[in-house]
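S.,

Sequence below, as promised.
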Amino acid sequence: MILTGPEITAAALDGRLRIDPFDADQVNPNSYNVRLGTTLATYTAPVIDAHRPNPTTVITIGGDGYVLQPGELYLGHTFEQIGSDHFVPLLFGRSSVGRLGLFVEITAPIGDIGFHGQWTLMLTPVRPLRVYPGMEIGQVMFFVATGAVDLYTGKYQGSLGPQPSRAWQDLISAQAAAS
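The prediction came back faster than expected:
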């Protein structure tokens, strides 16, 4: 079951889910609009390696915005910190942003129960596109979970700002377990 707008508001006010800051004007019939934060990161190596940390460069989006270029992956973040120990969050781009040719979440829209923090956004434009801090870029929906819940305690817990991939940590963990 998906939470309706009024239930999202009630859950945000009684603590069953966290949206910080919460703004009632961003509540939709069955989702909550999230805004783009002030920071982007891009990978700087010519080849990204899933088994190693990859260097990034950080870009601050000023009041005049920043032009995203096709063929580049930009890691952005939500302005809001979002999380719940009760509901499963899913984040998607807003249709109005998709109509501008911007992919907001390429392959990872589902969040884990127990994650709390700013969400990293995977931004890829089809054409050059100017984005602005604070623009409504995505929407989060919340679903009721059934069954026993194991709260998320993973490597991205408490994230602030865009987070590069830490897939290489999984390899290290797997190698340690095999030893």
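The radius of gyration is 17 Å.

Coffee later?
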